[in-house]
Design goal:
Layout (H helix, E strand, L loop, with lengths): L12 E8 L4 E8 L8 E4 L5 E3 L8 H8 L3 H11 L13
Antiparallel strand pairs: 1-2, 2-3, 3-4
């Protein structure tokens, strides 16, 4: 038995970003949504790993390392890249 927590749909904007550095190639998708307190869903198309990220999360390199299985240097690169695409958020009520 289960209890349905939510079942919603919305039109979401999706952006795909691919870039290569001296260390690695990165292919990310970003789903901009009003759900999840407005945090975009970021997924790595190479590792199938995903997480919710807001702009402030991008300064937490340990979080990025764990979320996407990155080295410290790779996490720094991803942080710089994502700061171009992840918006700063004002606090939103979710429920």
């Amino acid at each position: 038995m289960f209890e349905r927590l939510y079942d919603t749909s919305e039109q979401a904007q999706v952006q795909f970003i691919g870039y290569a550095s001296d260390r690695a190639r990165y292919d990310f998708g970003i789903v901009y949504t009003n759900a999840f307190f407005g945090k975009p869903i970021v997924f790595c198309m190479q590792t199938n790993r995903s997480t919710l990220l807001d702009y402030d999360d991008l300064d937490n390199l340990t979080y990025l390392q764990k979320a996407f299985q990155l080295t410290t240097a790779e996490a720094e690169e991803v942080s710089v890249l994502m700061k171009q695409f992840i918006p700063t958020l004002s606090i939103k009520d979710q429920y």
